[in-house]
């Protein structure tokens, strides 16, 4: 509670308007979501990972995506890459554990695909899952939508 | 406290000199001499306890980049561990200067270097922060805030604007220099000169890297790069802005008798003050952990206590 008061006091004292966007971001039904705003699409024992529409909207124009090496190991909750926008580079965390089998090389030349098509052409890595049970700890579309609303409402 | 000596007359507007060819706003006032040292008092929030911010303040020291970089990363690692245990109670602020060095961000291109990277005039570090190439060196005050945005605002844009706000207030409240933001060009500008550069990294909402403010910096090394990838503007310093405008003064008596050291002292004090106000934190000065630095690198430090 106190942290919300600090944040709102600071924001109002600064009288800074943010680029905060209250419009509804797209959330796809057949995906799973992490609380760090990555999505995962599971097909058998392999998974495709990217960042959500909500995340790309809050980041702004992505100018660079740092991709892992094919063959690298990823762990659920661990950072595997980064996205840069507006002088700020942020970690991307993996919603699942496994081995990277493919990376979206197109993003090196067209990082903006993460903004324009976060769930399709803007996918970031494909992972061979090592533990399908981990998916149970992720959110479904409805839970994730609610999570985003609550997170945005705090600030 | 060192007080800037400013003549007593009412505010006058000083327009930039006519040979300021790159100035896009010829009538913009960006230095106003006021009759007294201006202070702005914060809105009182006496009833709220402010978040603590541990401050490692070695603003007079020039530190090798690699040492400070590794120090930041170790603090971030510790903070993430504390967050896991729900024990993250304070933010951190490091203030220092660097030995001459160039640093690149994650997306930086070597095309913005006017030299071959294998034959660089100073060390070059490719870092994990956002932003393009920049130069750090003596006379430039660096702030590395390591803040948990969950306790402030989980919004990177807000954080960048807040860092800019700190510097804008320093320039305005302490030097009466009117600085501003330019949309799309993160940093703090006076005329067509960038006085402060910003580049950050965020990991699990913990920020690191930060801002660099030119106070008395020798700006020559910036000529070896395209600073921040921006070709049609310049880099400036507080000393440069003050010198340009004092020399323009038709009244002739507005001379700033400040040494470089005094200028850095005044700026540092103001940076800490404005940082506390913008981020609504309470500074808690901490001794520098000696194991973070090689022996002999910081001869002026009087303590070798460890952080608790």
TrEMBL record, chain A:
Cofactor names: (R)-lipoate
Source species of the chain: Escallonia rubra
Lineage summary: Eukaryota, Viridiplantae, Streptophyta, Embryophyta, Tracheophyta
Family of the protein in this entry: Belongs to the GcvH family.
UniProt cross-references to Pfam families, sorted A to Z: GCV_H (PF01597)
GO BP: any one term: glycine decarboxylation via glycine cleavage system
Function according to Swiss-Prot or TrEMBL: The glycine cleavage system catalyzes the degradation of glycine. The H protein shuttles the methylamine group of glycine from the P protein to the T protein.
Segments passing through the bilayer: none
Modification sites for N6-lipoyllysine: 87
Coiled coil spans: none
Subcellular location: Mitochondrion
Subunit-level organization: The glycine cleavage system is composed of four proteins: P, T, L and H.
Full protein name: Glycine cleavage system H protein
GO cellular component labels: glycine cleavage complex; mitochondrion
Major place of residence: mitochondrion
Keywords annotated in UniProt: Lipoyl, Mitochondrion, Transit peptide
Statement: the UniProt record of this protein carries the keyword Transit peptide: yes
Limits of the Lipoyl-binding domain: 46-128
Textual note on the cofactor: Binds 1 lipoyl cofactor covalently.
From TrEMBL, chain B:
Family indicated by similarity: Belongs to the LipB family.
Record-level GO BP terms: protein lipoylation
InterPro entries: aa-tRNA-synth_II/BPL/LPL, BPL_LPL_catalytic, Octanoyltransferase, Octanoyltransferase_CS
Record NCBIfam families: lipB, PRK14345.1
Entry GO MF terms: lipoyl(octanoyl) transferase activity
Name under which the protein is recorded: lipoyl(octanoyl) transferase
Positions of transmembrane segments: none
Pathway: Protein modification; protein lipoylation via endogenous pathway; protein N(6)-(lipoyl)lysine from octanoyl-[acyl-carrier-protein]: step 1/2
EC category: transferase
Keyword tags: Acyltransferase, Transferase
Listed PANTHER family: LIPOYLTRANSFERASE 2, MITOCHONDRIAL-RELATED, OCTANOYLTRANSFERASE
The organism's place on the tree of life at top rank: Eukaryota
A UniProt-annotated Pfam family: LplA-B_cat
BPL/LPL catalytic domain mapped to chain residues: 87-283
EC number from the UniProt entry: 2.3.1.181
Species annotation: Escallonia rubra
